[in-house]
Each structure stands twice: as structure tokens, then as C-alpha cells.
């Protein structure tokens, strides 16, 4: 077993006792940090940064040098998987991600390969191994993937979307084509996450950023069902320790009970769900991660501290809480505000872990 100097994050995910509530921030490596912008400029573009293990390691470690975070997250992107399937990912300046070959028909779906994570995605595994060496056992490393549904939205729409009309057209006009795509993605993501675990990821998180765009029945069938398949196929132990799995569906607050039945260890919450209510509903089955509105970080240190205190009180006494934002940190947040947030979580949470 590898000794970790700080294993609060892993312990909280397994609802084991901790001294203070662990905290990390979604998108903690990113454009709100001037040092990130400098490294990214050195790499050229975003995908070159992801594909360079030394630089990906550098940007993963940058937020940990500034703040007392309890976990590191692999620097990569969810869209590496569709890129490895041959869709031609590129980033238009200021426009977000785009695919040169979107998936529009059943024939397109059937042509897609299931990528070998050690080949086409070998650069991600190299980054995981490099980051583990760089962390020197200080805090655990989180690996991640997009959910099949969320990846499919980008692959079918050809990029980011607000209304998801193209993929919903496929869903209602040719549901079998979409199921075949989601099934292929579930197989690809299972292999990808297991490879990250073997390379050294000590916990994994599945980001279902767009699950909340679905109706209840469609969510169960087209998103949760495939995340469940992934969880069933994951290697849950490595280096003599359990590898906890966190499921995050943005806008998924109404489905927590169903999510908690997938065999995951924790659920990520966005800020639209009350954490006290979430704990009453599923807290005997899974840990909870979240859930401060990232926009609160625009407020003063006092305002941030008040919100942290309210969320800690909402979760209440006992184990099973990982503090986080309800979604990624915004790029124009002053880094000192992120520091005040992390510091407040540690300072105010000891009383709940007596
Ligand atoms: O210009 C830049 O530097 C690129 C911006 C950027 C960054 C910093 C992108 C492009 N991806 C990332 C890193 C990233 N993406 C991480 C790194 C680790 C960390 O958290 O520090 C992670 C976990 C992701 C995951 C990701 N990418 C998600 C799921 C989580 C979420 O935020 O909902 C999604 C939906 C993406 C797609 C994506 N990649 C990049 C952008 C700008 C987007 C979003 C586009 C959209 O809104 O549709």
C-alpha cells in the first residue's frame, strides 16, 4: 500500500472519520491562475498541453502550490475519448470545443472504434504516472471521464450546445442509433478509467455535465443506465486500497436516489440541491461532494466564509462530505478568493468531526 500523507479525501468518500472536511475545486487548474496561462502559452494550444505529460503535470500541481487542497485532479479533458475515436477535436479561439467529423447516422456510429487506452490515449496514462511521481504521496490523484451521454452530446452536436436539438432528434427519431453510440462509449470509458486506475489514479469521477437536460425517464435510460454499466466494469481496488467512484450529474438533484443505487461511492451535487436534503435522502448509502455556487467566489472573504459555514452546517455532524464547488471555478475569479474558500473549509469544519 502506498502511504499517503493526506488521505482525507479518500476517507471522506468512503464515509470514514476525518479531522476536517476535505476540499478540492472542479477545474482547479485553469485560466483563473496566471501560471496556468503562462504554461498554456508555452504549450501552444490546449490539446498540446494535454498531450505533454510534463506540462500536464505542471498545471495539475499549480493550484496545490497555492492552496491547501486535499486532492489533485488529472489535467486533461473529457473530449480526449471522442478525439481518440477519430472525430478530430479542435478548439476555435474563444469558441470552445469542435469536432470536424460529428456523428450523425447509424453508419457513423458503427464506424467508430473503441480506443485502446494504452495506445491512442497513452498520453493520458503517461500524464497520470508523471503526476503521481510529482505528487510524492502528498494527496490523492483523481482520474476522470465524461459520461457516455455527455460525450455523445458533443459528438453528435459537433461541439457545445444549449438546446441539444440534434442529439434529441436522434434520440426520438432513431433511438437505436443513440443506444449503440452510448454502448460503445460506455465500453470505451470503462477501459479508459480502468487504465487510469492502473496508471495510478486513486479515485475516479464521472462528469455527466448535461444529464440535467433530459426528462426523468430519458435520464434513466440514456444517461444513468450507461454510467451504471461503467461502474459495474470498474476495477475498484488498486495498491491495496479501494478506488472510490464519484458520479456527478449537473442538474441531477431530483435523481439522487437512483444515482445512489449504481454502486458508486459518492455523488457530486451542484448548488441547486440543498445538501441537508440530499443527505437525508441518500446519506446512508453514499458520500456527498459539493456544493457551493462557484459565483460566490466573486464575493468578499466574509461572504465566502458565510456560505462555507452554511453548507457545512447543512451537511451537519459526521462523515461523508467532500467540500467542492457545484461546478467549475469561473476563469475571472481572483485566486485569493479561492484561497479564502479552501482555508475557510478547513478552519470551520473541525467542529463537525469530533
Ligand atoms: O482555454 C483553455 O485553457 C481550455 C479550457 C479548458 C480547461 C482548463 C478545457 C476546454 N478543458 C479544461 C480542463 C478540464 N476539463 C479539466 C481539468 C482538471 C480540473 O478540473 O482542473 C476537467 C476535469 C475537464 C472536464 C470537462 N471538459 C467537462 C466536465 C466538467 C465540467 O466542467 O462540466 C466538460 C463538459 C468539458 C468540455 C470542455 N472542455 C473545454 C471547455 C471550454 C469545455 C466546455 C465547453 C462547454 O461549455 O460545452
From TrEMBL:
Catalytic function, reaction form: uroporphyrinogen III + 4 H(+) = coproporphyrinogen III + 4 CO2
Pathway of action: Porphyrin-containing compound metabolism; protoporphyrin-IX biosynthesis; coproporphyrinogen-III from 5-aminolevulinate: step 4/4
E.C. no: 4.1.1.37
Keyword Nucleotidyltransferase part of the UniProt annotation: no
InterPro entries documented for this protein: UROD/MetE-like_sf, Uroporphyrinogen_deCO2ase_HemE, Uroporphyrinogen_deCOase
Gene3D superfamilies: 3.20.20.210
Compartmental location: Cytoplasm
Pfam family, one: URO-D
Chain positions of site Transition state stabilizer: 77
Keywords: Cytoplasm, Decarboxylase, Lyase, Porphyrin biosynthesis
HAMAP family with a match to the protein in the record: URO_D
Family statement drawn from the similarity comment of this UniProt entry: Belongs to the uroporphyrinogen decarboxylase family.
Protein name: Uroporphyrinogen decarboxylase
Organism of this sequence: Jejubacter calystegiae
Name of the gene this protein is made from: hemE
